[in-house]
Amino acid sequence: MSSVQDTVFDIIAKESGIDRSRITPNATLKDLEIQSLDAVQIIFEIEDHFKVTMPDRDPQFDTESVGGLIATVEKLLAEQTTQPIAP
Amino acid sequence: MQRVVITGMGAVTPLGHTAAATWSAMREGRVAIGPITSMSRDGLRFGIAAEVQGFDPLAHFDEKKLILFDRVSQFALVAAREAIAQSGIDFSADDLGENTAVVIGTGIGGEQTHDEASRRLYGENNPRTHPLTIVRLMANAPACQISIEHKLTGPAFATSSACASANHALAQAFHMVRSGVADAAVAGGTEACITLGVIKAWEAMRVMADDTCRPFSKQRHGMVLGEGAGVFVLETLERARQRGATILAEFIGAGMSADAGDIVLPSEAGMAKAIQRALADGALGTAEVDYINAHGTGTPGNDPTESKAIRRVFGAHADRLAVSSTKSMHAHALGAAGAIELVATIGALREGVAPPTMNFLDPDPECDLDYVPNAARELPVRAALSNSFAFGGLNAVLALRRAP
Questions:
Q1: How far is it, in rounded angstroms, from Cα B159 to Cα B103?
Q2: Within a domain: residue B189?
């Protein structure tokens, strides 16, 4: 399990109050019966933890499923490290 | 019990700086949603809103007075002047001002003042806060400033119920005049919420549209923020007739309810309860209603729930109703929304025209009413409702009839 996945699982479990063992990468937040207000809090906590901005309504990213959230975070983090440092 | 009529209306909206200009833009189906111009769009996710553009406070207030007014009070004061002038009412005659109420709703209050004070304090580490910060930002400032300017010494206060604030204000004013607690009222709603802090907060909820506001349409993406004010003069039918005033509409009922459920998800039962109570309060039969100005925010949650609530109350007559969301044009002005939408409702009653739901693409199977898509429609409007349903599950619906 990647550290991003580990952290995202932790955040989902903490914010939604569901049992961590129920969370799988394939599940959508809807499958896990996570209410919309909890879902936006999960996304906020992910953004705040990783210091990234998660896309909103961008068809190129899946922010509905747990695996999609993890992949999005990993992609955003990779973009940050490859970006040239401003002079 | 007195019969209550509306004899003056004023508005400052993204569609125009008067109620008349706002209504004519609604009839034409003009959409005031566009890229935000009042601040840098850097760091904003979508950067669209419906702003009141070209509003010059110095055209309305002298500099010495202006320092007391946040933009939220400026809008309310200008709208109140228009409404009072149109009604021709003289508050100094017969001590009328002595018992005239002022009730002005706002969801947020003086947010620009708040934003500026926070920026200085936290952003610039500037320990000096402007001494008029409190009097500008307090949520009751618009009501106070109207009462001061027009010397109205009856009951005066603000209502705050997020997106239903204006309808709650108008409901309170209506019930006070009907029962005789007040002889007349100046009431409505105002909001000036297009600040960086407020936009970021709405964006964080992920309910904002990236393109425009498309209520009831399958392709709707959420809501768009607006701003502005609407203010009305309410008085008894008896007084209006005595003084030969032009009556814009009769205000016959107001219904309120709380969902007591979810803080954000709307409830069909709660909405239906407020609609039923407005009808009952106004002794209005469902078959007499021809037009409903919907809350119609364009969010996934509101529009199907509101459509089902209307169907639940109106049954088969729901198919004969014209239901439109003018938020498609002026966007969602939160605590001013119901007041701006009352301009639309009064326009519909006076001119027999249902304003359109603009930006409408394909119908959503979950929303199965006649939403007057993309063009205004002439139809006789005998009676109309105006819906407002707020976060927190706070609902307020107004019922009006054509002028007697």
A1: 7
A2: yes
